[in-house]
């Protein structure tokens, strides 16, 4: 039986939206036929998906139309924790587990957010660019500020929020947690302040960090009314999901200097186009959705993603799936 399963795995076809970091490709090599499309938009690669047993999605989306058009598809894999670009309901209805990597990236994203806090606070980007131009006197702008004793409001106390809170506390920041699903006593026991009211967290923040998933109810959770509550000296950080922030309202707030600055790693449409209005501003830092992509974290994530893909293709009930109820589907009980 093991030999039969091994032959079956070697014959399976896995479509990859983009090549994985080497460690993941090494796991898949020789076990499946790989098709790399360099395109994750399911409507544009539908013909390839119709021939696939598995789909590994890095950047892009797969919707109900594509899922229902691909009866041979047995697994969809996300190389990360976010699955908002996969129609989970359609996947579950069709008996397709959606493999994801729920905790491995938390430290890397928290570190990236902390790096952004320092970059904003110390005005590193402008200072670097001006120094390259020979403008040594940029130092006399006195734009840099200290972070010690400043309040960082962390919206969302999941794995990433907890890591970020620990890092910020370690450098002497005042940490305020905002999470309506957590208990005040639990948060305060860890040495942080707590509120379950977003408006309070926003108004108190010198740094406002978004660390919640995207859901329909969290779309544009930061828009003009919330930005108007922020201190003029405050900074916004978003390393979670682009859909959380209304980009036009953020642009207006930054352009009009209603807030001091922002740093974002995620956009509503990715990859971001160089013509995007936010990129014309001098008080924003933008990185290309790279917060979890450290060498160490990426190696771990892609190996888990690849191993999960192979496990599901071989008929195993892999534990790390975003839709565990899928295992009640007749496809898994025949």
UniProtKB/TrEMBL annotation:
Domain D-isomer specific 2-hydroxyacid dehydrogenase catalytic: 15-322
GO molecular function terms noted in the UniProt entry: phosphoglycerate dehydrogenase activity
Enzyme class: oxidoreductase
Classification via InterPro entries: D-iso_2-hydroxyacid_DH_PdxB, D-isomer_2_OHA_DH_cat_dom, D-isomer_DH_CS, D-isomer_DH_NAD-bd, NAD(P)-bd_dom_sf
Gene3D superfamilies: NAD(P)-binding Rossmann-like Domain
CDD domains: PGDH_4
Pfam families: 2-Hacid_dh, 2-Hacid_dh_C
Residue ranges of domain D-isomer specific 2-hydroxyacid dehydrogenase NAD-binding in the record: 114-291
Sorted UniProt keywords: NAD, Oxidoreductase
Enzyme nomenclature, EC number: 1.1.1.95
Family per similarity comment: Belongs to the D-isomer specific 2-hydroxyacid dehydrogenase family.
Listed name of the protein: D-3-phosphoglycerate dehydrogenase
The organism of origin for this protein: Youngiibacter multivorans
């Amino acid at each position: 039986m093991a030999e039969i399963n091994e032959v079956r795995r070697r014959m399976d076809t896995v479509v990859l939206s983009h090549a994985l970091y080497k460690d993941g490709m090494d796991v898949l090599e020789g076990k499946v036929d790989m098709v790399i499309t360099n395109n994750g938009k399911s409507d544009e690669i539908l013909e390839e998906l119709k021939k696939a047993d598995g789909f590994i999605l890095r950047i892009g989306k797969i919707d109900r139309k594509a899922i229902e058009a691909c009866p041979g598809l047995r697994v969809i894999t996300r190389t990360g924790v976010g699955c908002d670009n996969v129609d989970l309901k359609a996947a579950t209805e069709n008996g397709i587990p959606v493999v994801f990597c729920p905790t491995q990236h938390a430290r890397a994203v928290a570190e990236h957010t902390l790096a952004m806090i320092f970059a904003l606070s110390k005005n590193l980007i402008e200072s670097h660019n001006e120094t390259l131009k020979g403008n040594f006197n940029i130092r006399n702008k006195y734009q840099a500020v200290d972070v010690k004793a400043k309040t960082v409001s962390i919206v969302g106390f999941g794995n990433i929020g907890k890591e970020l809170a620990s890092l910020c506390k370690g450098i002497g920041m005042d940490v305020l947690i905002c999470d309506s699903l957590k208990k005040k006593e639990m948060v305060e026991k860890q040495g942080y302040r707590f509120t379950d009211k977003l408006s309070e967290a926003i108004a108190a923040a010198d740094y406002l960090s978004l660390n919640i998933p995207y859901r329909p109810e969290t779309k544009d959770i930061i828009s003009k009314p919330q930005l108007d509550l922020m201190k003029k000296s405050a900074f916004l950080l978003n390393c979670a999901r682009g859909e959380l922030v209304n980009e036009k309202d953020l642009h207006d707030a930054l352009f009009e200097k209603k807030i001091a600055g922002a740093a974002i790693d995620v956009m509503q449409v990715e990859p971001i186009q160089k013509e995007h209005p936010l990129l014309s501003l001098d008080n924003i830092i933008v990185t290309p959705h790279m917060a979890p992509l450290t060498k160490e974290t990426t190696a771990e994530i892609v190996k888990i993603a690849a191993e999960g893909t192979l496990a599901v293709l071989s008929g195993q009930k892999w534990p790390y799936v975003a839709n565990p109820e899928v295992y009640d589907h007749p496809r898994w009980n025949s």
